[in-house]
């Protein structure tokens, strides 16, 4: 299976999920994340889910991070050059849904990618080697290349990884350190 086929297959699988299933599966993922050895870190990058894409609801993870008094960082996407700008989430951060359905900060304190310790990454699919398939625009790969080498990359998925290697990856594609699903946690 190549990246295009995996993207199409897992988009349709996710489309079949109900809102209730998404909430339940997202909570199971958050409960698994609590058990990861990542809590001595300081800056955690968290994506805000695109509701129409039926992404993992990261609100549960956000509550865990807030409860542990961690710095939460969220992104704003630039669709001209496919880059992201990152902002500290505070009580005064205003969130607005852009024309693509992505919740983003309107303002805030900018955080450089080099400051981040842990990044929770949205994806459509992953293979058993930690290769991830996103939406195909390369936002996260560009972003991850700007982070320090020690940053922990944690993919969140409703589905288990594909047993065989997904074809079509290049040296620009960044591999995950962990994949967290409702049923299991995979370390690469």
TrEMBL record:
Cofactor: Mg(2+)
Keyword match Hydrolase: no
Top-level lineage group: Bacteria
One of the record's GO molecular function terms: ATP binding
Positions bound to substrate: 48, 55
Alphabetically ordered keywords of this record: ATP-binding, Magnesium, Metal-binding, Nucleotide-binding
Catalysis: reaction(s): (6S)-5-formyl-5,6,7,8-tetrahydrofolate + ATP = (6R)-5,10-methenyltetrahydrofolate + ADP + phosphate
Gene3D superfamilies associated with the record: NagB/RpiA/CoA transferase-like (3.40.50.10420)
Binding residues annotated for ATP, in chain numbering: 3-7, 132-140
Family under the similarity heading: Belongs to the 5-formyltetrahydrofolate cyclo-ligase family.
PANTHER family: 5-FORMYLTETRAHYDROFOLATE CYCLO-LIGASE (PTHR23407:SF1), ATPASE INHIBITOR/5-FORMYLTETRAHYDROFOLATE CYCLO-LIGASE (PTHR23407)
NCBIfam families (alphabetical): MTHFS_bact
Name of protein: 5-formyltetrahydrofolate cyclo-ligase
Organism for this UniProt entry: Psychroflexus salis
């Amino acid at each position: 299976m190549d990246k295009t086929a995996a993207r199409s297959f897992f988009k349709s699988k996710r489309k079949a999920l109900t809102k209730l299933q998404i909430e339940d599966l997202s909570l199971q993922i958050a409960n698994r994340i609590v058990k990861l050895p990542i809590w001595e870190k300081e800056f955690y990058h968290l994506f805000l889910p695109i509701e129409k894409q039926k992404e993992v609801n990261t609100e549960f993870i956000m509550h865990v991070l807030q409860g542990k008094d961690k710095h939460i960082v969220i992104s704003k996407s630039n669709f001209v050059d496919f880059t992201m700008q990152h902002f500290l989430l505070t009580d005064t951060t205003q969130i607005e849904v852009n024309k693509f359905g992505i919740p983003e900060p309107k303002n805030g304190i900018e955080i450089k990618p080099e400051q981040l310790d842990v990044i929770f990454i949205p994806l459509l699919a992953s293979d058993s080697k930690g290769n991830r398939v996103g939406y195909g625009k390369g936002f996260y790969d560009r972003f991850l290349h700007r982070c320090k080498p020690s940053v922990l990359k944690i993919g969140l998925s409703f589905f288990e990884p594909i047993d065989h290697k997904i074809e079509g990856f290049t040296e620009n594609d960044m591999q995950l350190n962990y994949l967290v699903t409702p049923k299991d946690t995979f370390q690469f």
